[in-house]
Known about the structure:
alpha+beta; Phosphorylase Kinase, domain 1; Aminoglycoside 3'-phosphotransferase, Chain: A, domain 2
Amino acid sequence: MSAVAVQSRRVLEDACRQAGLPAVGAQPIRIAGNAIWRLPGGIVARIGRPDGLEIAERELAVARWLTDNGVCTVRPVIIGRPVLAEGQPVTFWDELPPHRPGTAADVARLLKQMHRLTPLPSLSLPPLAPLAKPMRRITNAGILTTDDRRWLQDRASQLAADFAGLPAGLPPCALHGDAWDGNIAVTGDGTAYLLDLENTCYGPPEWDLVSTAVKHLTTATVTAAAYEDFCSTYGMDVTSWSGYSVLAGTRELRMVTFALQIAGEHPHARAEAQHRVDCLRGRNGPRPWTWTAVP
């Protein structure tokens, strides 16, 4: 077990003691930005980063709000505040039955439901700030050369300026913030659930649509037919909006810098992180690019 996984298990065991839940037999589902563990009894524990208490609290509130409004999402096991264990917030959720990732149409269907809702003032959704994480990740990325770091910083600054001047589009609403097929789970009875609510915020709905468009045009992991289903289900093709290039460029940068962050914790991801940087810098030809998933 890696040092990161050992630390994660220690946090998990502390949180389970506080919550009165069993940790014996817990199995890791994913050890990455947020560690996710499967506990006995059909419970999933999600461990946030040390600075993520506010985010974890919002996840719980958003899950309750969506459920109350008929949008299928994961359900908290313990209602209230996250458990703090060694300075990290831990939340507990009902484990879903066996499921598969969603289709592009599933993504569109759930987004359409969510975007139609009026968010409660008590949710305190932050405004969309899509360049905050990339800028921080670029600064902290240990594998970058000086030249690559400077180029990425300049790219982030230009995108931030362009984002501030986005053209008018659809009315602002509550956003999932990281809407893609991996954050949708479809169970055997066909019910699609919205997962991973940590990026929920308020802003232009086009941001939630761009991720699927980028997967179609940038990485070719969504086929033309699937993308057509996505657009017809939601009722809009975001690539026809004049602000698309800004949001698409921002999404690409987030995907690159996420790999850089993971590479700092998992050395085997370094080659993929550098590959993505090279693609963005034009060293690997035009889009679409072949990117491999990082943990």
